[in-house]
């Protein structure tokens, strides 16, 4: 009989979260640590080791399918993690091999975190019914993963899914990546906050100002999502416009890859149905006609659990 | 021993070209007919039948691997051709099944023509060394095909590769497809000619005017390519700018699919090395940093033979 449990590790710049997951996608137990990122890779690997041992101890001796790890950065076919943003000293870390030496009796798989979240939605979430879809994480930045035939499309070197750096205006704003007009440069942290700050000058009654206690330097897309959920008009306008822009980039991917379904995760997707509707309307009006009847934009279902579930899904 | 010959049919709105092709990618014999498109599918199918019989008769009784057909329009997994542009009455034609009934002893495969050309470059042309690349046809319009692991990526319904309808300006010019700012709307027939016409007002010495005998309504991108080859400055400027725009769309695909190589075919790619260089420079400056060292933009090698060769490659 196939093992029905696996360990999933969601390793990020701020936290290491590890869970014991059933093959049905239930997290039976989980722990959480603040990432000790500034002490370098070996300190973080020790944290992962400790959290995995803890989770394994809750498996009551049941056979597990292995240990899956979702990591920021590009992850190559051998589980080497390359330059994860916001974690110093990680130019190239052979994470799969290192964890494999610590847990030699377990199967180890390491995957990029956005890809892991896409796998989670495919196996256990909003993508269960859809063999092919584009998954988008929209939070501080914009990332993604592509599911083809129920499997992750990693690309030749594991770097696929960078939807945030599709240019939607070739003459547009400069992005940190060096390109111009990247969709992330319009709907990610920096520019979305800048544009909102501009608009707040003439809309001093907006709830957004309350949420940041009047300090606009604290303005993050998450506060826009929160204000929108509370019915704030300006927040809804900003996110509707941003959703339309995201739709431009999604439509490009759908045209090129012949896809019809997109699943939106990350903090902003939780701002309300209106965001998902704005994205869907934009995508549908922009894709080629034969694709239009099948267009579906759905909200991700697994929220913060997607990381652990997708990591476990790598070995389940 | 594997058969070393196949029949390749390159069926388009203007001509039906059919060849006897060796497994090394040599066209040993070919014929060519003007497409009798206005008489409906059965007339065209009769043309294909006659041209295939003719090519088969040149095989001297050697065993052939089958008959491959490149067709405009979307081609589904069962070889049904859907709505090829510029050919009336072809809403849905089961081309593979129909040709299979006529030649029951031969294996039949039908594929979209841009995909067939991509396969040709992969098997026999500029893509031989590259297991993964984006193929672009740039002529009157902009189309493409994606090669992954030496095979064509068709997408779930066979519609993949529509790079021409990536928007490079979400507020840009309206495209026939309903989207705004599609790269095809900038570098395809209509807009490229319009912009050139504008510029010709202040550049009456351009060779372009000679080539169209002073009649600017005849201005096609092909004439720009021809003028550029003859050293015309305005033509080179227009195509350099257009190449930079094409690079924006190619960079988007490379970021999303983790690709590094693009091969450019179609009439305009033959305007000169400067076009390929303009595209490459644009792509390299716009893709994510980890991709940059590997970026290669190459000119297609097979020219007008790509259709027949790719079609034969479907069954070889």
Explain what you see.
2 copies of one chain form a homodimer. Chain A is α/β, with parallel strands linked by helices and 316 residues long. The first copy, chain A, folds into 2 domains: 5-112 and 305-313, ATPase, nucleotide binding domain (Nucleotidyltransferase, domain 5), CATH 3.30.420.40; 126-300, 2-Layer Sandwich (Nucleotidyltransferase, domain 5). Chain A is built from 10 helices and 13 strands. In chain A, the strands form 3 sheets. A 5-stranded mixed beta sheet of chain A has the order 3-2-1-4-8. In chain A, β2 (15-22) and β3 form a beta hairpin. The longest helix of chain A is centred in the C-terminal third of the chain and has 25 residues, at 233-257. Chain A is globular, with a radius of gyration of 20 Å.
Intertermini distance of chain A: 13 Å
Biggest β-sheet of chain A, characterized? 5 strands, mixed
The number of domains of chain A? 2
The percentage of residues in β strands of chain A lies in 15-25%
Give the CATH level 1 class of the largest domain in chain A: Alpha Beta
Radius of gyration of chain A: 20 Å
Question: How helix-rich are the residues of chain A, as a percent range?
Answer: 25-40%
Shape of chain A: globular
Average of per-residue pLDDT values of chain A:
94
- Could you please say which CATH topology of the largest domain in chain A applies here? Nucleotidyltransferase, domain 5
> How many runs of DSSP E, i.e. beta strands of chain A?
13
Low-confidence stretches of chain A at least 5 residues in length (pLDDT < 50)? none
What would you give as the CATH superfamily of the largest domain in chain A?
A: ATPase, nucleotide binding domain
């Amino acid at each position: 009989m196939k093992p029905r449990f696996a360990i999933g590790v969601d390793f990020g710049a701020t936290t290491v979260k590890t869970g014991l997951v059933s093959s049905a996608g239930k997290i039976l137990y989980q722990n959480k640590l603040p990432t000790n990122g500034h002490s370098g890779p070996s300190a973080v690997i020790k944290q992962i080791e400790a959290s995995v041992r803890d989770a394994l101890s809750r498996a009551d001796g049941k056979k597990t399918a292995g240990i899956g790890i979702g990591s920021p950065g590009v992850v190559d076919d051998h589980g080497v993690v390359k330059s994860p943003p916001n974690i110093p000293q990680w130019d190239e870390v052979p994470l799969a091999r290192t964890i494999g030496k610590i847990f030699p009796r377990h199967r180890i798989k390491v995957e990029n975190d956005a890809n892991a979240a896409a796998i989670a939605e495919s196996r256990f979430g909003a993508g269960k019914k859809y063999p092919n879809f584009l998954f988008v994480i929209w939070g501080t930045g914009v990332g993604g993963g592509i599911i083809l035939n129920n499997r992750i499309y990693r690309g030749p070197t594991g770097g696929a899914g960078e939807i945030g750096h599709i240019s939607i205006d070739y003459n547009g704003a400069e992005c940190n990546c060096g390109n111009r007009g990247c969709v992330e440069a319009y709907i990610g942290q920096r520019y979305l906050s800048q544009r909102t700050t501009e608009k707040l000058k003439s809309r001093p009654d907006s709830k957004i100002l309350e949420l940041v206690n009047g300090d606009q330097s604290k303005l993050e897309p998450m506060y826009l999502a929160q204000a929108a959920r509370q019915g704030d008009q300006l927040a809804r306008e900003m996110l509707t416009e941003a959703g339309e822009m995201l739709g431009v980039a999604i439509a490009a991917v759908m045209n090129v890859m012949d896809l019809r379904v997109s699943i939106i995760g990350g903090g902003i997707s939780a701002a309300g149905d209106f965001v998902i509707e704005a994205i869907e309307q934009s995508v549908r009006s922009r894709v080629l006609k034969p694709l239009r009847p099948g267009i579906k934009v759905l909200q991700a279902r697994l929220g913060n659990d997607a990381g652990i579930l997708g990591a476990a899904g790598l070995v389940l």
